[in-house]
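Data availability (excerpt). All sequences and predicted token strings are deposited with the supplementary files. A representative entry, PQQ-binding-like beta-propeller repeat protein, is shown inline so that the format can be inspected without opening the archive.
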Amino acid sequence: MTRRFDRFGAATTLAATLSLAAAPHGAFAQETPAPSEQAPAAQATPAPTPDATTIQPAPGVAQPGDATAPSAPATQQGQAGATEATDEAAQTAPGDEPSSTLADRAPAEQRQIGSDWPFWGGGPNATRFSRLDQITPANVDQLETVWTYRTGDMPTEETKDKYSPEGTPLKIGDALYICSAMNVLSSVDARTGEERWRYDPKVSPDAIPYGATCRGVAYYEMPNATDGQACAARIIEGTLDARLIAVDAATGEPCADFGENGAVDMWQGIGEKVPGWYAVTAPPTIVRGIAVTGAQVKDGQAEDAPSGVIRGYDAVTGELAWAWDLGNPELTGAPPEGETYTRGTPNMWTQATGDEELGYVYLPMGNSSVDYYGGNRSDAENEWATSLVAIDVTTGKPVWHFQTVRYDVWDYDLGSQATLIDFPAEDGGGTTPAILLPSKQGDIYILDRETGEPLVPIEEITAPKGGVEGDAYADTQPASGYHTLRKDDLTEADMWGITPLDQLFCRIAFRQAAYDGIYTHPTADRHWIEYPGYNGGSDWGSVAVDTENGVIVANYNDVPNHNRLIPREEADERNLKPIDEKQPGDAGGSKAEGAGDPQAGSPYAIDVNAGWRAPFTGIPCKQPPLGGIRAIDLATGKTLWDRPLGTARRNGPWGIPSFIPLSIGTPNNGGSVVTKGGLIFIAAATDNLIRAIDEKTGETLWSDVLPAGGQANPIVYEQDGRQYLVIQAGGHHFMETPVGDYYIAYALPEE
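Structure token line:
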């Protein structure tokens, strides 16, 4: 249902390659050694707040301070080119249909990726492909650090071991817009990294769910803003304590016209406020002036969890434009007083994608509020869970949905952002507007953007028998006939260890567990093996698509989970309680890997050994590689090359770094960017490296040591004729990489 990260990290990723002979031939590939670790750079000195005119406008969009900007009421909604609407039109009474004026909004001109990086996925199509080509395979080895910015947001005693920032900045004009782990917003100079402004929404530490995470922010420009109008360009973010916040892009001051003093309380209609159970970690997706957002609902707690309702808010006023409650589709606004949106329904914790022309937003949905038992789910939950859902933002109603897993009891929620592409016809006769959808089980689907119909045939996998729910499980599961990142089923020979003892342990555990390939059903009398594990396949880092050369770049995990359902009597003996019943000192259910999640309301709690490790050394039971990166031909779905991603340098048995620079393939968290210059930039792995990979060959051409873990998506942009690469080095406590507060920029030396 919601995002849960694996605690792989140092012990997990093997630098246990002290016994290389135990690995299969080809599992290890030599990777260019990284330079020596450097001391962290000093924090950039803040610069004075710039004039609003430093932000370059999109064509036809007025900016604050623009004397030629046409006059418009401060209450006008929508984006550039949209039809004027009133405040009253945006308001929706409980249970009412959204105002028909939403349908009158015309598509707005969108900023495109190029010198800027205006969307979380780069451009509006979320391809993460940059047409900048100043940095090439021939000169990438000359990259140097040109600035380092530190947010100052580091764990305290209260938040120790809870930081997983995962931030991707936006770049618009000459400014970068950044959020920190605890939702502190800042703007920095794109050329120097100097801080221009900072806004701290003061999120309470008790709001942290699995980890303190802010993946990014959204940027919105009001149409026809008046001369000097505050918040004509604004930054909007969702927070861990479930607020939607808007600040002036030029000053960082809260937007007085948005909600109450710049904030909207998303707990409205959710029910009793239980800190840490309901949080927003991804930026909203803005389509036709409507900011669409879901929320993360902490996994494994109870069937009576907060609703997975999806809501659209006016990007100017913060007014609720519509709500989609899949359990109560007649309710299109706020619930009546004293009532809530349907509890326990599938949610969207990850990043949606917008299609401004169609007026659709594409939602990668999770499963219901207990991941591993489905006996109490409603028909609506079974219909909509683990689906990509297209919603028309002018009505708030679903247009189509495509389900990737039936009766999901594996936490195979959709974590990746979908990408909008033009898919070439098989006969070469043109292209179809399509959407590319990666999944945790590894399948990549190609769907018609307007109808949701598969453009490549869908196959059926016969599901194995067994499991605690018997005939309730789906008999078959859909599989993509286009491409899958999934590897062959595990065998006992795949069990591995740094010593004969832990290898023997893993082989015995494999024999004792229930396992009959993918979609092995949950069991309570013994463990069962889930492969791929719930971290993918493909997860929130998503894929990059070189639209000029027709190449998909996909990094992936290749690690199993070792799970067991816990009968309720045993769960009670272990005092496993959900988050809303916990008292100080209660044990169980607090760790992200799912060990001791209570799943209250169902007959079973759950133990999950994510990244399935041997207890003696902390080394995973599956032989390496545990993660990789692959190039795929967009037209045919055929693999161009595939190689392990991540070295053993920071990993080893008992959590001791080995510093072995061999590319063994580690678990990874984060995504890539691909450029016209022929390069793929990615960090993501647990070795604290950012690397440049040759798009044609998969060879690593350059790498650098980050001062903390690089579990984030990098961006590429241009400023004053110079191309920059920026990555957050924030670390990740679930991946067991060092935590930091760094944003680091690289560029070629100036001539």
